[in-house]
Amino acid sequence: MSAMRFFAMTCAAMPLSLILFAPVFPAAAADKDVIVEQPDANLSPKQHVNQLFEQLKRERDPDKASGIADEIRTEWNDSGSATVNLLMQWADKAIQEKRTAAALDFLDQAIALKPDYAESWNRRATLNYANDNYRKSMSDIERVLDIEPRHFGALSGMAAILMETGNDALALKAWERFLAIYPANRSAQEQMNTLSEKLAGSRT
Prior knowledge:
Layout: H1 3-13, H2 16-19, H3 45-58, H4 62-76, H5 82-96, H6 100-113, H7 118-130, H8 134-147, H9 152-164, H10 168-181, H11 186-202
């Protein structure tokens, strides 16, 4: 399955607020126990996220890694501002109702109020992607990665756009960056292997 088709299927099946940007690759199986290390109560939100990323990098079980990634997404969804959080909720509702102009307006307001909040840029990147505006989507993705270089969702989105526009070598580098952060993601592994084989074939 191509990265683009997987992204389209994921977008259709899940609320935008849950997919962040690009494929949220297979979730933990419902019949397996996914245990995530409990954070130290004294940790700040930033320290907790750093701890989760350390766990994600070490974890080799895909289901357990998916549980850790979900915790990271949960942390990312809180901007620390009640106003920005409300704007993000309004944007999600507008997106679900296909009111694109309103959604963009809410996201623009969230970005203006808290420009260092990666998820408002990430959500706008998703919306721009859905509207086939790859240039604006890529610009927003780059801003997300300036704020949070470990944002695996944004890296996945970057790889998808690069693949769609025929930049396979750069897409491969994006998947490599993704897997350095989230090594247990099987779909990302498959995408990288497919691209590696394709590029190797083109050189023979």
